[in-house]
Write a structure and sequence with these properties.
- The chain has 10 helices and 2 strands.
- The model has no long low-confidence stretch (mean pLDDT about 90).
Length: about 280
């Protein structure tokens, strides 16, 4: 029967999932859904379909909107939702924990940059299809909700977690990844002089090793975050990032090689020396 099947399915779930409250199980399910959708998207992107924003922007996907405005609006929920949960749930065991606070700071610092700083630094910028914007804001709303609730409601890290190798190395990896990401963004933004519109070969920083230095930095960020959080929600987020922007780095790499005859042959697409 249907009820027996559901019971068998529930029994097959990991013990930490079964032990979670119904509210957290909802978030775990949402996280699994996000990860599954991004894994599927990775296969689509690697098959040759290009996400139509940035250099691949296309009106064939429907109505277009201002690219800077799209960035601000789509990233805002991933910043605003965690901040709102932190403020609304004060004081609590989770919001009073220093490791929880540091992890929330890492999450919101990335999205503060992505929401309020990065879009303002973009020179020019191509329009974004509204359909792409809607998919991006939906992801940020759901993921912002999942990560916020994990750190302000469900997971409490003791002071001992501050010296745990997973937390220390994970947070260090996050900081390194964010630095790589911001440096790479800066290099890309400075490629064009005022008034220029063409594309150039990025050089310097990790661009000497990979075509997608900015993407690699962000992948490293969220891998570190997942390690420092050591929970399913953050792990699903990290996997989703690799599956979403990893294929874009591969597409950029192919694009650069087809456009520039003198493109450095030793460069990889995403991971230095490997891929």
């Amino acid at each position: 029967s249907a009820s027996t099947t559901m019971e068998q399915f529930a029994a097959s779930l990991p013990s930490w999932w079964r032990a979670a409250s119904p509210a957290e199980q909802l978030d775990l399910t949402l996280a699994a859904g996000l990860m599954g959708s991004m894994v599927t998207a990775a296969f689509v992107l690697l098959a040759g379909i290009q996400a139509p924003y940035g250099r691949y922007s296309s009106a064939s996907w429907g109505l277009l909107m201002n690219g800077k405005l799209a960035w601000v609006l789509q990233e805002l929920p991933a910043f605003a939702i965690p901040v709102s949960f932190f403020v609304a749930l004060q004081p609590s065991e989770q919001t009073s924990s220093l490791p929880n606070r540091l992890l929330l700071l890492a999450l919101t610092s990335h999205y503060f940059n992505r929401t309020f700083i990065f879009p303002m630094r973009i020179r020019g910028g191509k329009p974004t299809p509204v359909t792409v914007f809607l998919m991006a804001i939906a992801f940020c709303i759901v993921n912002g909700w999942i990560q916020a609730r994990a750190l302000t409601m469900f997971n409490t890290y003791s002071a001992a977690w501050l010296t745990d190798p997973r937390f220390v190395f994970g947070l260090a990896l996050f900081v390194v990844g964010m630095a790589i990401n911001i440096q790479a963004d800066t290099i890309l933004m400075n490629l064009r002089k005022p008034g220029e519109t063409g594309y150039k070969i990025p050089r310097g920083g990790l661009f000497d090793l990979v075509s997608g230095a900015n993407f690699f930095g962000e992948c490293i960020e969220w891998t570190g975050f997942a390690l420092a959080c050591w929970n399913f929600q953050a792990t699903a987020f990290a996997v989703s990032v690799w599956c979403n922007i990893g294929p874009r780095a591969v597409q950029h790499h192919r694009w650069y090689k087809s456009k520039f005859e003198d493109y450095p042959k030793q460069r990889k697409a995403l991971i230095p020396f490997l891929l």
